[in-house]
C-alpha cells in the first residue's frame, strides 16, 4: 500500500512547486507515495500525511481555507485527532497560529499558540519582505532535523515573507533565522511541523527536508 | 547568519528558445531554455528569470510549456516576465510553475493592474519591471529625476518619471522591482548604478539590478554602490564568459554574503 500525501488546495498560489518537489522527494525515496493535490475534504480524511502550502496574505488564506466546505473540519479530524504527520509551508505555517495581524486581525487555526506579526528589523536599511536565501539556527531537537545540514555554515533556505510567527511556547520553536531580528523559521509540536521558508524552492536543503517529512514516523 | 545577495541568471526566450540581444535587437539563438535552467540550477544560481521578449507581439503559448518543464526539474524560485497583460496570464504562469511574474508594459498602461494582481496572488509574486532610460541633458524636467520609463523592450518612451513610478508600484503592491537601465542593457559596461541606488533608496522592497553586466566587478558594484538586493545578468553567463560559481566567488571575495551551498558541499 502506498502512502497518500495530500497537498491541500484552497486557491492559495502555486501548488505546482510543492507538488513537483514532493513527487521528486518521493521518487528519490524509491516510490511508495501517492502525491495528490486536492480541495476535497474526503482526500484529507484518508490522507497518510497532509501538506498545507500557502502564499499571499494571512486573512485571504484563512478566508480561502474556510471557504472550502468541510476542509478545516477534515483537517482537524485527520491532523489533530488522528495525528497524521502534517507539514505547513509559509502562510500554511502561519495559519497554525492563534491570530494573524496582517492587514486585519484574523483568527488562525490555533494549533500552535502564537501571533503572526509584521517583521520590524532593527536595521532600518533592511528591506521588507525578507526575500532570499538565509541559514537556519536550530533551537530545539527534532527527528526531522537530525540529519539536515543546517546552522550558520550549513545549507541555505529560501524565504519570502513580511510577517513572522511569534510562538507563545518556546518549546514549539524549532529553528530561527536572523534578519535584523530573530525570526521564526520552523515550528512544531507532536505530529505538526511547519516552515516559514519554502522547502519546495530550497534546492538540496528543501528536497532533503521534504524527504525527511515523508519518512517521519511518530 | 545573514540574508544572501541573490545572483539571478536571466534567459531571454523567444518561441521557446533562448536568445540574448544587444539592446534588445540583433538576436542570437543560443539554446534550449530548460537545459540552460537545469545547468544554472546545478551551478548554484539563486533564482532564475525567463523573459519572453517577443511576447508583446506574438503568441506566447510556448512559454507555459517551458515554465512547466523547468519547474519539474528546478527547485528554486522562477520569475517569468514579458507580455503579461491580465490576471489570467498570471494565473496560467503560476499554475505552470512560476513563482513570480515580472510586469512591465501593462503596469505602465494600467497601474491598477498591479493592485488587482497583488490582491489576487500576493505581493510576493508581483515583480514590476522598471525599464528606464536617462533623459537627454536638454530634456531634464524640473522636479523630476534623470530617468524616464520605457516600455516594449525599450522602444516606447512614456514620459513617466522612473523614481515616481517605482514608488507608486510599491504602494500598489509590487513585492520587488527589477530595475533595468535600457541605456546599458546589452552593452557590458556595467549597471547604471546611480539609477539602481536612487530606486533602491526610494522603496522598501528589494531591488534587482539589471542591464549592462560585462564583468564580475559590475555585479559587486550593483550591490555595494547600487544597493541592490539581487543582481541579474544574461549574456556573461549564457555565453560562458563567467560561471555562476566564479561570479559568486568574486562577490564573496569582495565581502558580499552569497550562498555557496554547491561550492561548499561539493
From TrEMBL, chain A:
Q: What's its catalytic activity?
A: L-glutamine + H2O = L-glutamate + NH4(+); 5-[(5-phospho-1-deoxy-D-ribulos-1-ylimino)methylamino]-1-(5-phospho-beta-D-ribosyl)imidazole-4-carboxamide + L-glutamine = D-erythro-1-(imidazol-4-yl)glycerol 3-phosphate + 5-amino-1-(5-phospho-beta-D-ribosyl)imidazole-4-carboxamide + L-glutamate + H(+)
The protein's annotated pathway: Amino-acid biosynthesis; L-histidine biosynthesis; L-histidine from 5-phospho-alpha-D-ribose 1-diphosphate: step 5/9
Superkingdom assignment? Bacteria
Kindly give the Gene3D superfamilies that the UniProt entry links to this protein: 3.40.50.880
Question: Domain named Glutamine amidotransferase: which ranges?
Answer: 16-213
Q: What is its main location?
A: cytoplasm
* Keyword Transit peptide annotated: no
Record-listed E.C. numbers: 4.3.2.10, 3.5.1.2
Q: Which residues form a coiled coil?
A: none
Q: Which InterPro entries match?
A: Class_I_gatase-like, GATASE, Imidazole-glycPsynth_HisH
Q: Where does this one sit in the cell?
A: Cytoplasm
Per its UniProt record, what Pfam families does this chain match?
GATase
**Active site per UniProt:** 90 (nucleophile), 198, 200
Q: Which UniProt keywords apply?
A: Amino-acid biosynthesis, Cytoplasm, Glutamine amidotransferase, Histidine biosynthesis, Hydrolase, Lyase
Function per UniProt: IGPS catalyzes the conversion of PRFAR and glutamine to IGP, AICAR and glutamate. The HisH subunit catalyzes the hydrolysis of glutamine to glutamate and ammonia as part of the synthesis of IGP and AICAR. The resulting ammonia molecule is channeled to the active site of HisF.
Summarize subunit and interaction data from the UniProt record for this chain. Heterodimer of HisH and HisF.
Q: Tell me the protein's name.
A: Imidazole glycerol phosphate synthase subunit HisH
| Source species of the chain | Maritalea porphyrae
Q: What is the lineage of its organism?
A: Bacteria, Pseudomonadati, Pseudomonadota, Alphaproteobacteria, Hyphomicrobiales
Q: Which gene encodes it?
A: hisH
From TrEMBL, chain B:
Q: What does it catalyze?
A: 5-[(5-phospho-1-deoxy-D-ribulos-1-ylimino)methylamino]-1-(5-phospho-beta-D-ribosyl)imidazole-4-carboxamide + L-glutamine = D-erythro-1-(imidazol-4-yl)glycerol 3-phosphate + 5-amino-1-(5-phospho-beta-D-ribosyl)imidazole-4-carboxamide + L-glutamate + H(+)
Which Gene3D superfamilies would you find in this protein's record?
Aldolase class I
Respond yes or no to whether keyword Lipid metabolism is given for this record.
Answer: no
The EC category is: lyase
Q: Which pathway is recorded for this entry?
A: Amino-acid biosynthesis; L-histidine biosynthesis; L-histidine from 5-phospho-alpha-D-ribose 1-diphosphate: step 5/9
Its localization reads: Cytoplasm
- Keywords of this entry: Amino-acid biosynthesis, Cytoplasm, Histidine biosynthesis, Lyase
Q: What is its EC number?
A: 4.3.2.10
Q: Which domain of life is it from?
A: Bacteria
Pfam families xrefs: His_biosynth
Q: Which NCBIfam families match?
A: hisF
Q: How does it assemble?
A: Heterodimer of HisH and HisF.
What's this protein's function?
IGPS catalyzes the conversion of PRFAR and glutamine to IGP, AICAR and glutamate. The HisF subunit catalyzes the cyclization activity that produces IGP and AICAR from PRFAR using the ammonia provided by the HisH subunit.
What protein family does this chain belong to?
A: Belongs to the HisA/HisF family.
Annotated protein name in UniProt:
Imidazole glycerol phosphate synthase subunit HisF
- Say which species the protein is native to: Maritalea porphyrae
